[in-house]
Design goal:
single chain, 2 domains, 264 residues, globular, disordered N terminus, six-stranded antiparallel beta barrel, Thrombin, subunit H, alpha+beta
Length: 264
């Protein structure tokens, strides 16, 4: 019932920290936000009506955690809906007592996301289509599903400064994601992903850059500080390969069910 919503929801992944009732802190991926609240997959159940302290790292302001407070509206165990692959609790939180400066940041973030959602999504789809033009020759199936992640360039075995990214394209062999700088071919990065089936921990990969291209808008002008970088994973453990394979197979199966049901 999207047309009845007073506030638009932005489907753009970002990181959020929160504490449970015992004071334990969790860092999760959020892919649904509006000016009024957030929806995310929580690794623990939160009591309906309880108050929660939140820290948001919004893509529009990536160098600062935004301090917010919220009230739990719902924390639903997904395994009871026959969707046990997603291990966690679908949790909706309404923002409360938000200071005006934080409210302004949220409002600007949602407005920016709304304005750019279609055009940037179209640009990325075009770019991904170009990079995947030989997909029928690929050994591994790629899925175009946004996932939140972090990346850093490796200097030996030591990662440099970490930055937040959105992974746009994923396979067992590699990934495509946005970066703020250009990386030369054969540069080595460390990539940390939040996989929905493992919402508590990051899944860590070392990867070698195959290609890094500056994004351009629909008028073919360069987008400053935005590059689409394609990487190939270096040897990955069987355990991580299995986690990726399970997630990719689940995603494809879920997508087929949506198509068969006539859902968008």
């Amino acid at each position: 019932m999207e047309e009845k919503r007073k506030f638009f929801r932005i489907k753009k992944p970002f990181l959020m920290k929160f504490q449970d009732s015992c004071g334990k802190q969790y860092c999760v991926s959020v892919s649904d936000i509006s000016e009024q609240g957030v929806c995310f997959l929580s690794p623990v159940v939160l009591d309906s009506g309880s108050k929660v302290d939140l820290l948001l790292k919004l893509p529009s302001n990536p160098n600062q955690w935004q301090d917010c407070h919220g009230q739990v509206l719902e924390s639903k165990d997904l395994s009871k809906d026959g969707n046990a692959f997603l291990n966690g609790f679908r949790t909706r939180i309404k923002f409360i007592n938000i200071p005006e400066d934080i409210s302004r940041v949220l409002r600007e973030h949602c407005a920016l996301g709304l304005n750019k959602e279609r055009s940037l999504g179209h640009i990325l789809e075009q770019k991904l289509g170009m990079l995947d033009k030989d997909r029928e020759k690929r050994k591994n199936v790629r899925i175009n599903k946004p996932l939140v992640g972090m990346y850093a360039e490796l200097n030996g075995s030591t990662p440099g400064e970490w930055d937040v990214t959105t992974v746009r394209n994923l396979s067992l062999g590699g990934a495509i994601f946005t970066t703020k700088v250009f990386y030369k071919s054969a540069s080595v990065l460390r990539l940390m992903l939040k996989i929905p089936s493992r919402p508590i921990d990051f899944l860590e990969f070392d990867a070698r850059v195959v290609e890094s291209k500056q994004l351009r808008n629909l008028e073919a002008f360069s987008i400053a500080g935005a590059y689409l970088t394609r990487v190939r994973f270096t040897p990955v453990s069987p355990e991580k390969i299995e986690i990726l394979r399970e997630y990719i197979e689940w995603f494809i199966s879920h997508l087929k069910k949506q198509i068969d049901s006539g859902l968008e």
